[in-house]
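Recall the central idea of this unit: under ordinary conditions, the amino acid sequence of a chain determines the structure it adopts. In this exercise we apply that idea directly, starting from the sequence alone.
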Amino acid sequence: MIFKEKTRMSKLAQRARGLARNEKGAELIELAFIVPFFLVMIIGIVDFGGAWAAHDQVAGAAQSGIRVAVNNFNDTTNPQCGGVPCSVQAAINTSISALNNANLPTCGMDPANITATGASFTWSDSVGCNGGTFTITVARAVPELDNSSGTNVTVLTTQVTINYPYAMTMNMPTLGYFSNTFGPYIMLNRTVTMANLS
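Accordingly, the structure predicted from this sequence is:
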């Protein structure tokens, strides 16, 4: 009777050990399925965090460029710097320097390549970068309505627009915040407008 009881107990112990081994195996399989999704989520968070920071740096570069551009807006009729107004070249130089200071690659953009574009008093510089096209545009004499005095007054302003392709680590959707939803890069767009100083 005691022998039968011991045999029965050892069989129960073997079954319990077998179940424990099976549970550990199941846990390893579950872990193997969960870890890749967890890693993708972590990399995605880091990737979008970098894109968000780059968006702020592009905005800062546009603001730096426009501060330079509005100081000397009357040189549009007297271009002294290779057929381009010097203030436009200085504004683009300042934007490029701000991006370089933020450790965003400018892909060799050279302000010497600035060209007039379709709109009057508009100049642009662009270069291939991160799989897309990096562009800085300076538009002068842009009319804006100002009603801060109670009446509508047209004020001539300057606009600096930066379109910057930010290289993504992963091919992921951007949830509609940025303009490009899929691809090796997302396009960070920023336009800053400021009244010309008189």
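The chain has one domain: 3-195.
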